[in-house]
Amino acid sequence: MFGAPSEFIEDILSGQQADEFEVFDENRTPLEIFLRLSTQWLVGEGVVRGLNYQSAQWVISMFASDIQREIFEQIQVMEGAALDVFAAKNGA
């Protein structure tokens, strides 16, 4: 998982999240863009459906225009993980 240590992955999967965590340099830009998209979730019938990709494209072009495709793919990985969390909280 993007080079994260296995102990860190185990802690995350078990719900034991630290207040502070290290972000590897290669993941910093995708994470920053993902966080900038925090108000761009599409919701329908009370269910989070995913990120607004038009907004994502605009934010990526502003902050990472030279590696847009790579950043978008990394954000989709984070989006998928977030959707799993939303689904688990909704009992799906």
Characterise the protein shown here.
With 92 residues, the chain is mainly alpha-helical. It has one domain (25-89). It contains four helices and two strands; from the N terminus they run H-H-E-E-H-H. It has helices at 6-13, 25-36, 53-63, 68-89; strands at residues 41-44, 47-51. It has a two-stranded antiparallel sheet. Helix 2 packs across helix 4.
User: How would you classify the helix and strand content by structural class?
Assistant: mainly alpha
| Biggest sheet record | 2 strands, antiparallel
Rg, rounded, reads: 14 Å
Helicity level, as a percent range?
A: 55-70%
How are the strands ordered across the major sheet? 1-2
What's the total number of strands? 2
Order of helix and strand elements from N to C terminus: HHEEHH
Instruction: Estimate nothing, just give the exact number of structural domains.
Output: 1
Number of helices: 4
Mean pLDDT: 85
State the distance separating the first and last CA atoms. Answer: 24 Å
Estimate what percentage of residues fall within beta strands.
5-15%
Chart the SSEs and their pairings:
Layout: H1 6-13, H2 25-36, E1 41-44, E2 47-51, H3 53-63, H4 68-89
Antiparallel strand pairs: 1-2
Notable features of this structure?
92 residues, mainly alpha, 2 strands
Quick recap:
Helix content is 58%, strand content 10%. The protein has four helices and two strands, in the order H-H-E-E-H-H. A two-stranded antiparallel sheet has the order 1-2.
